[in-house]
């Protein structure tokens, strides 16, 4: 069955999240994190992506709009699978795209993202992450 078309608006903020298959880690080490950030950084440099907040949790990632998110995920999984000699899926299904509809949520969203490592018990305090 085909997926429903996702309605997108250019230049409207969204909160994105993509989880690893079976909540497995999508970054196994610092080289994986650098690889992911390099792909995101390339889109930032050419102006194809704006990131207001980012948190690279071990089992999910939070960048920005859908076609660029597919680009990041697709390029990263190719690098990840090649480096770790894998052929299976890395991401669990489609990423979430939550429209930021009002100023209150726009203000709260970066706070939520930056506190994620503390809530996930990756770090005791978010500032260390």
Structural class: mainly alpha
The domain count comes to: 1
Spatial gap, N to C terminus: 40 Å
Q: What is the CA-based Rg, rounded? A: 15 Å
Query: What fold name stands as the CATH topology?
Result: Alpha-Beta Plaits
CATH architecture annotation name = 2-Layer Sandwich
The helix fraction, in percent, is 25-40%
CATH class: Alpha Beta
Provide the succession of SSEs. Answer: EHEHEH
Low-confidence stretches: none
Count, helices: 3
Indicate the mean pLDDT: 76
For the biggest sheet, the summary is: 3 strands, antiparallel
Strand portion: 5-15%
Produce a short descriptive summary.
This protein is mainly alpha-helical and 129 residues long.
Summarize the structure in words:
The chain has 129 residues and is mainly alpha-helical. It has one domain: Transposase IS200-like (Alpha-Beta Plaits). Helix content is 40%, strand content 9%. The protein contains three helices and three strands; from the N terminus they run βαβαβα. The protein has a three-stranded antiparallel sheet with strand order 2-1-3, with no helix packed on it. The N and C termini lie far apart (40 Å).
